[in-house]
Amino acid sequence: MYCVLRSLLYGLAFFVVVGFTQACGGDSSTSPSSVSVTPGEVAGEWTVGSGTEETNCGSGVTTEPVSGTLQLDIGTNSDLEIDRSLVVGSRGCIIQFDLTGNIATARPLTCSERVPMFDIRRVTVIREWTMTFTDGSNMTRSSVTTTSISGDPGECVFTIRDARYNKG
Fold this sequence. Notes:
Elements: H1 2-18, H2 39-42, E1 44-50, E2 52-56, E3 61-65, E4 69-74, E5 80-83, E6 94-100, E7 103-106, E8 109-115, E9 120-135, E10 138-149, E11 155-167
């Protein structure tokens, strides 16, 4: 039962990180191009076109296609934000991004949420997350996040490199 619950919760964490993963950017080692976008131009729903995510929960690495959408909103205290809360409407895990030219970079974040349905706590750490916009309707995402569940000694690392998204 414990293994089934753990798989379910990490699977849920995978969906949350990748889908709305989970979810995700560009290569932060490249210099910014002459392209510049505004938060208003890139806010909205982005659908993944291609990309893979590696998941490492300590027992090996699995690779899956990135799926789902990202909802980018104009930030309250940042240029852009994504709400990754497990509990809908709780705003317990808001990823904030600073936009410079055409690159949005996530601010450091550790968020901890109680998941009442399973009576556990989920902790997510954003290690890195960048989105590089080629214009207002195309972008690439690269991200590394970790998730751990209370009572479980391990953590899962989710890595996405160069996933491509389209707006609309």
